């Protein structure tokens, strides 16, 4: 059965964006170094990406304004905005938990939850994330957008793999 995987980077103090909602701090301790990450290997295991509006907007306006970076991957943007879907991106005004449950029942590879925090928190609350790929960036932001909000109950995890490169620590966990 396909897995739902949250693959995301956080600061050491748990933020996915700084106080200005920026992510220009995602490089490691040497900004000129190219990090050796799990990303390329991970991308071979997925055929679907789900992201919230804020993450989508940041990608298309700041990170990759000239080209959709997930071309060839079924892309779902969860939003309340009435937008017209394209051949590359489906805009859906649907409960994210229901969407992910429906997508998980379809044939294919794993599903990537790309962000943001609100989407991830909803899926975590409903126990829909099977694996967590967390890249911890060596920076303390002090404030920003926290990945994990308050949870009603603990979620026990099992560490599967660790990797370090350029000060970035990649952690892979799955639910116990």
Detailed description of the structure:
- The structure is a single chain.
- The protein starts with a strand and ends with a strand.
- The mean pLDDT is 94.
- By secondary structure, it is α/β, with parallel strands linked by helices.
- The protein has a single domain, classed as Dihydrofolate Reductase, subunit A.
- The strands form two sheets. An eight-stranded mixed β-sheet has the order 5-4-3-6-1-7-10-9. A two-stranded antiparallel sheet has the order 2-8.
- It has four helices and ten strands.
Architecture blueprint of SSEs:
Elements lengths: L3 E8 L3 E3 L21 H5 L2 E7 H11 L10 E5 L10 E4 L3 H9 L5 E6 L1 H9 L5 E7 L7 E2 L10 E9 L2 E8 L1
Parallel strand pairs: 1-6, 1-7, 3-4, 3-6, 4-5
Antiparallel strand pairs: 2-8, 7-10, 9-10
Short description:
This protein is of the alpha/beta class. Helix content is 19%, strand content 34%.
Shape: globular
CATH homologous superfamily annotation: Dihydrofolate Reductase, subunit A
* Mean pLDDT over all positions: 94
Give the ordered list of helices and strands.
Answer: EEHEHEEHEHEEEE
Radius of gyration: 16 Å
CATH topology: Dihydrofolate Reductase, subunit A
The largest sheet has its strands arranged as 5-4-3-6-1-7-10-9
- Please, how many domains? 1
User: Total number of β-strand segments?
Assistant: 10
CATH class value? Alpha Beta
- How far from one another are the termini? 17 Å
Number of helices: 4
Beta strand %: 25-35%
Helix content: 10-25%
- Biggest β-sheet, characterized? 8 strands, mixed
Q: What CATH architecture do you see?
A: 3-Layer(aba) Sandwich
The secondary structure category is: alpha/beta
Q: What are the low-pLDDT stretches, counting only 5+ consecutive residues below 50?
A: none
């Amino acid at each position: 059965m396909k897995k739902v995987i949250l693959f995301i980077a956080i600061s050491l103090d748990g933020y996915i964006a700084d106080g200005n909602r920026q992510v220009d701090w995602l490089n490691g301790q040497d900004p000129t170094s190219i990090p050796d990450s799990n990303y390329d290997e991970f991308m071979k295991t997925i055929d679907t990406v789900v992201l919230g509006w804020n993450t989508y907007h940041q990608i298309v306006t700041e990170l990759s304004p000239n080209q959709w970076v997930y071309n060839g991957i079924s892309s779902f943007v969860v939003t309340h905005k009435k937008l017209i879907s394209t051949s590359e991106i489906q805009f859906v005004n649907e409960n994210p938990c229901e969407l992910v449950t429906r997508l998980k029942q379809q044939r294919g590879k794993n599903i990537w939850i790309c962000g943001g925090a609100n989407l991830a928190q909803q899926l975590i609350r409903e126990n829909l994330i099977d694996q967590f790929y967390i890249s911890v960036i060596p920076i303390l932001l002090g404030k920003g957008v926290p990945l994990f909000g308050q949870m009603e109950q603990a979620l026990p995890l099992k560490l599967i793999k660790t990797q370090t490169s350029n000060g970035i620590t990649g952690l892979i966990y799955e639910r116990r």
